[in-house]
Amino acid sequence: MKFAELGLNRMLSERCKSLNFTEPTPIQKQAIPIILEGEDLIGCAETGTGKTAAFLLPSIQKLDEEKKPGVRILVVAPTRELASQITEAFVELAPKRLKSANLIGGANIKKQINALKQGARVVIGTPGRINDHIERGTVNLSMVDTLVLDEADRMLDMGFLPQIRRILRAVPNERQSLLFSATMSDSVKSLAYTVMDDPEIVEVSRQNRTARTVDQVAYRVAMPSKTALLIHLLETNDWEKILVFTSTKRAAERLAHILEARGVRANRLHSDRSQSKREKALQDFRDGKTRVLVATDIASRGIDVDSVTHVINYDVPEPPEDYVHRVGRTGRAGNLGKAITFVTPVEELALKQIQRLTGEDIERVVLEEFNQSVPSTAGAGYSKPQTTSREPAKTSTTRRRNLLKKK
Question: Could you report the per-residue pLDDT of 89-117, keeping only the tens digit for each?
Fold first, then answer.
């Protein structure tokens, strides 16, 4: 199926072709015609499924055809990174005459005000900063035709419901509303039916399941040996574009510095870093200048980086849903990926909860050198492990499918 068959005009169809969007993804096939019809929509889709283009393409077409002044499309996202990526996607897809404003915290608010004054017809931002502009009177949302709530589950998890309600009071009641979420919890459903009128529901993936293109394995390790194990894996394999997740900002800082001291091209991404440093860390990772990006869960949702080969959970994530979000960074667009989790004895229960959530068994691997209670010294030399044992899962988690590349 071609994009033109979904109702997109020639300009947008050609634009998709120039960006190597060879065929619509399942979420795009289902959502684009519904959005073009002006219907409200709930899209249950994980990251990496093409959902951003699913709501941007039809929204751009309607916006360009109507040629009405003022802010007509409002996209709300949970993090600055995701909002910035949606803005970048809009700039790539839309004709230059359609202007946008990216309203995110940590960025120069005067530049944002200037972008609004220059006739932005699309506003993309985070709940907090959008509310700042509402309170300042620097943004007028009274003419919004289309409201998009992206990663709605994440916004609720982050406590943004009051800000979302304030935004809802600023937009017209007569509008099209689109809500996208990786999971459909009761709170997400409640929000959806508060803001929507008889929405169409599109679900393209099973909830709380990892992608079929991701091979999952867990290394049993003593807590003091986690860093030494990570260094061993990095130095004995030629992996590129590795995302390492830690549970705390302090751990991310410490780990990135240790890796840099070992000569690994590493950087870190967490909320204590300035917006400019976070953007540069992410761009360097995309460009291949950085081999390892150490991140907290702020990066586990909505970060769009092509060809991440490995995700390493330095700590077992809690709640277990975060595991699915972290692992979703690899094995995207038909590429194969691998998810590695370091699990200590005290984290074993959390890993079992993840298995219950996903319905998948995760293979355990033991490198005896790193499974001892005696601490390993991360910064010093160490001998290679002499013994490797595997405990296969009840059903194999190794998958080797050559899937059609999807954007």
Answer: 999 999 999 999 999 998 999 999 999 99
Neighbours of 404 (CB within 10 A): 9
pLDDT digits (tens, 9 = 90+) for 252-285: 999 999 999 999 999 999 878 887 888 899 889 9
Pick the CATH number of 3-203 from 3.50.50.60, 3.40.50.1980, 3.90.550.10, 3.40.50.300: 3.40.50.300
Could you list the beta-strand ranges (E) of 155-233. Answer: 176-181, 200-203, 214-220
Burial of 110 by CB count in 10 Å (0-12 exposed, 13-18 middle, 19+ buried)?
A: exposed
Q: Where are the domains of the chain?
A: 3-203, 214-391
Of residues 112, 153, 192, the one with CA closest to residue 321: 153
Rounded to whole angstroms, what are the CA distances from 371 to 97, 129, 228?
59, 46, 11
* pLDDT at position 379: 44
Range 214-391 classified under CATH 3.40.50.300: yes
DSSP one-letter string for 219-248 = EE--GGGHHHHHHHHHHSS---SEEEE-SS
- Taking a C-beta distance cutoff of 8 angstroms, is the pair 379, 192 a contact? no
Structure tokens at 24: 């619509």
Q: In what order do the strands lie in the sheet with 73-76?
A: 100-103, 122-125, 73-76, 146-149, 176-181, 41-44, 200-203
